[in-house]
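Quick one: examine the sequence and fold tokens given here and explain what the tokens say about the fold. Here goes:
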Amino acid sequence: MYWDAVIWVKSTYNTDIEYYTLRAYMTTHFKCKLKTRQNLITKKNEQTIDVFKKLPDWLHSNRINLDKDKHESVNLYYQDESRFGLMTLIGKCLTIKGIKPVVRYQLAFKNTYLYVSFSPMNGDSFVYET
């Protein structure tokens, strides 16, 4: 960001320059602009959305059709999984127009998966880490 340039000018030349002044100067004279990484856009899966919308009706019909002679009660669990690990995120940086930024990054494959199930009916939970 341009704050890095403001700090650099202060430390190198011992001069205070306002953020917007330095930004305007750099964009005008050096054609600098902030560049960001590209975000991955995931497409919505229409079939998954339809299933999710039908879930309340499905739960209601299964509750009514439950064989009460075999089962005393039903407990509903919600489940989620997450991956935690090292991931390089490249943020914004200043470059001259037409120059692609080259940044250092750390490529690592250390990660762990966390699986969690939770029942809002009675508070039971289960956690599994790999």
Observations:
- The first strand starts at residue 33 and ends at 35.
- Residues 46-64 form the longest helix (19 residues).
